[in-house]
Amino acid sequence: MLVPMSSISFPFCSSKAHPPVISKHRSEFIDLRLKQFIHQNQIQEWPLDCVAILRKMKQSGSYGIQRIKLLKTLPEKVDAAAQYNAEAGEYAVFINHQRFCYPFQKSSHRRLNFTVAHEIGHIVLEHLILPRKSKTDREVHMEDLEADEFAARLLMPQKLLSSFNYYSIPVIAAWLNVSNSALVYRLNRLNRVDLITTRKVKSCIRCGNIRFSPFALYCGVCGQPLDRGSMGIRRIYYPDEVSMDSRKRSLICAKCQKSIAAITGEHCPCCSTSIFNLCSNIDDGCSYANPAYARCCEMCGKPTHYQREGLFPSWKREFFRVHEGV
Ligand SMILES: [Zn+2]
Ligand SMILES: [Zn+2]
Ligand SMILES: [Zn+2]
Ligand SMILES: [Zn+2]
Fold first, then answer.
1. How many A from CA of 314 to the centre of ligand 2?
2. Which ligand minimizes its atom distance to the CA of 271?
3. N or C: which end of the chain has fewer CB within 10 A?
4. Domains and CATH numbers, the chain
5. Nearest ligand, CA 252
6. CA angle 220-317-310, nearest 5°?
């Protein structure tokens, strides 16, 4: 049976009018479904574009989405809506033609990103399987709250939110591909409005690294040249990849993992790997010994020896590690 358009639950239908009251077990259910969703769709890099994700879901066929349609007949205030056809077991997602500004550029356009994530939430949380007429208004209201919560957690993971230099709400919202109000609402819900006023710290504009040797000219994590006082949008602590002493000598061999704390030479006796994370740019005469987090030389920006040997993981793994356990 096709659910009539008038009975479809719309994004932000009523969720802002009442204080949110999602129960603990439903909250855990949203988390579970969200993790499965992220895993299934191989979502690894933020910010997200939910229009692209929705198209990918349709292509994969695994969610039963048969149609994504730009519709001219949706009510003016409705950005998008999802519909379930029980007989065919299929979904259709409608996007308001008048409100569709894509790719998103300004805050009001980015609102659609949240709206589409909300509709995806209804599908992933299986809200639309039971017809509207079998539910009370309160139940429909709760489903909208849950879809909002799904969208907020998907687009703005908590760990990601705590990794920003909060210059301003519009700057961070633009980075996240959400509207300014969606970001403020999310910070409020998490009780983390304090993040907005936290001290800004020096960080690499590319990878967000906050660890620098005193005279570093390049970011040791990604090789980006450092401007004086440069402060990126992200701020990320990249941990040591190998244990070193204060003279930047490895205590454990970065390659074979043997303990080399007691050796006298400069190479591991087992595999001949240098005990220093040297710059690989020997041709230009750079022989700087880099710290234990460095994939790139802090003096010339070229890869370090340990990086070239493939001993350190890509910095992007840490950069996008925003959903633990996925
Ligand atoms: Zn809704
Ligand atoms: Zn960097
Ligand atoms: Zn070794
Ligand atoms: Zn170098």
1. 12
2. 3
3. N
4. 5-163 (1.10.10.2910), 203-326 (no CATH)
5. 3
6. 65
